[in-house]
Model the fold of this input.
Amino acid sequence: MVVLAVGMLIPVGYVVATVLEIGWDALAPLIFRPRVGELLANTVLLLVLGVPATIVLGVGGAWLVERTDLPGRRFFAVLLVAPLAIPAFVSSYGWASAIPSIQGLWGGLLVATLAYYPLVYLPALATMRGLDPALEESARSLGLGSWAVFGRVILPQLRLAILGGGLIVALHLLAEYGAFAFIRFDTFTTAIVVAYQSTFAGSSAAALGVVLATLCLVLLVIEAGARGRSRYARVGSGSPQPAERTRLGRATPLALTALVALGTAATVVPLASVVRWLAASDASAFGEMPGALVQTMLLAGGGAIGAILVALPVAWLTARYPGRLSKALEGPYYVASSLPAIIVALALVTVTLRLVPGLYQTPATVIAAYVIVFLPRALVSLRAGIAQVPESLEEAARSLGSHPIVARVRVTVPLLVPAIAAGGALVALGAANELTATLLLAPTGTRTLATQFWSAASSIDYAGAAPYALLLILLSVPAVALMFTQIRGRAR
Amino acid sequence: MNLTVLGVSKAFGATRVLDDISLDVAQGSRTAIVGASGSGKSTLLRLIAGFAEPDTGHIALGDRPLAAPGTSVPAHRRGIGYVAQDGALFPHLTVAGNIAFGLPRAGRAARVREVMELTALDPALAGRYPHQISGGQQQRVALARALAPRPGIILLDEPFSALDTGLREQTRRAVIDALERTRTTAVLVTHDQDEALSFGHGIGVMVDGRLAQAGSPSAVFDDPETPEIASFLGPAVLLPARRGDGCAECALGTIPVRHDRSNGSRAAVAMVRPAQIDLVTDAPGLNAVVHEVRPMGSLAEVSLLAGSVDGGAAGGAAGSAHPAVITLRVPPHQLGDLRPGSRVAIRVDGGAVLYPSDEADAVDEVTGDITGDESQPAVA
Done:
């Protein structure tokens, strides 16, 4: 595990080494200048407004479809997760090509919030399914109404899911390139990409990278502090019974309107755009698609498996033995993964070229980048899952003659299948839609769906990009569906 | 197999949880460990099961050492069955899958059927999942699962405490029955005195991490080592007393002493069970006054002020003994026309257990609190 943690630190080491190589005296004037202040303001505003918005949408949506008598809640449960199947840059392309005036901070906020709120919605939904209804019933018997129960009983138990989901959203907002580049909203990441493209690994880009890395670190510290040492294994006998649903009553039309509006903005608008451009495209656009499809699936699948294998021991340690040591071991994972893909990619380019040239521009390096970048998706999912498997089950297995490792494989792992599937699917999804690291690290001639889409769309060939956008969406649907049914099917 | 625990201690940080515990459980017998919550009884069970290691001391099953300083057999090689408080059934496996968990592939189905029959589980439940069966059934499945690999001993950690009363009694009987039929050595941990006293052949009382007393249930109930153990195990009337020659003078009169633990001190505390006490209305020596009569269905609760009646022939003790309030439960037909103010005579069947009384203050303290445990019916 220490080896893994050190491996994860490569990108961080790269940033630090860059700073040392350039030197603070050369770096300071590059950092303290108006352009950086402008980017900082943009990025901080994006976080401060965007993260709470995704939490409100994600938790509110999960509560409506899981814990109320909302009509059509099964349909809405699916509709709410659908944006996960639409890459943020495709969603941005959909909005930008439909309403060209969308741009800047508000455009960025709109697109990013609609694209990323499912990252809170899904863990919130999973946690709500695992909650012990007896706690809510006790609260009701103590005189609390629906709202009070939600605020004082459900919400505190959702803390891990909200913090984990919120952190992922925040890191995405920091790292997103394609979606913001489309609507000309400048963040640190888009500025770094521009700088790197012009000077490869120049010092001004490195300076921006240092500020961005610091920003990521601050986020991690905030989340870790808020998470604390809480453990939420359910105590009590038997397995949970399904909970009574809250009656919405006269609030029903309001809730329905809100969900329809959300579904339209997050799913219908981007899809409609893609379909419109698809009608305008010609057959030649489909020629290279099969190859791109296979390459995308292989790379993304490799990334998912790698990420789960790396995440399992860490998630287990932090969920079961919260303490300084496990936090210290977990730290490098989050720090490394919180760095934007562009920095991870350049770190791996530098390290492979200098130390192991044999790995330069191989699929292994691409997969390593995917693991580093998307590990938090696997970690958060697994950690939440492990926290809900009582330790007494493993003890029971051990008393029946199973070696501790066998007990874990036979009892804990099957119970973690929903968490593993959800985590793995999230990683694969992210990898399939990954753009910057793939562009920099993939062997020459590699064409994934995302890179093909990008090369067409960024040269305003909207019609030529549409088939790839559609395929990216279709490819994501099974992963999203699997993840969703795993969460739904639990304890049924 | 017989279980031997010798000099086992365990601390979590600075907190001493178990202090020099020694315990023998004979092959095929059932022993209950009873204690208040926090007395360390569950920790003891976890040490035996191998989920934690003792700091000092030895644990052995039959001839096989399980834990000794420096060595510890891991839980999965101990051959010890464990039934957790909530059953800890695997939610992803059916009832049959749970029971088969610790079994080798060969002969698995037959053994599952056999153990289900043994624990009085309906074969139709085999395909159900844990959340589809009742709490009592879940506990019986947990027992069946633990019994299936024929362990040398079964440990039960408060297995009935989460069940409601009717189900608890029924499940307890099914469990004892299954253990009896398989002649399985068993250790039960509980905070419920009745459960502990009725479980089987042995009982151990844990107080603050020490095994305060162990023996057969009747011996421990009959002759508790301290007044605290006496009150913990069941309703007890504790009265300040003066030790005489083979007898004790107290508010109930002069009563014989069956066990003298007073170490020869003259000031003592006498313990009798409410069930030993009879109320007589038509005999000489009316040494008590009825204070209150409360009908409670099949029994009535009677409060008496004992030892307060001067002039009565209360064994000559009336002058020296403190008066005391005692509460008894009697069948209504014995009540007669007792009402507040009625005078009655108190007869004690069998003797008292005598404990040393440290100081006069302590005696007064006991005086104010001399009521039987009201949760325990006492038939006079």
Remarks:
- The two ends of chain B are 42 Å apart (CA to CA).
- Chain B has two domains: 3-221, 234-367.
- Residues 310-320, 360-380 of chain B have pLDDT under 50 and may be disordered.
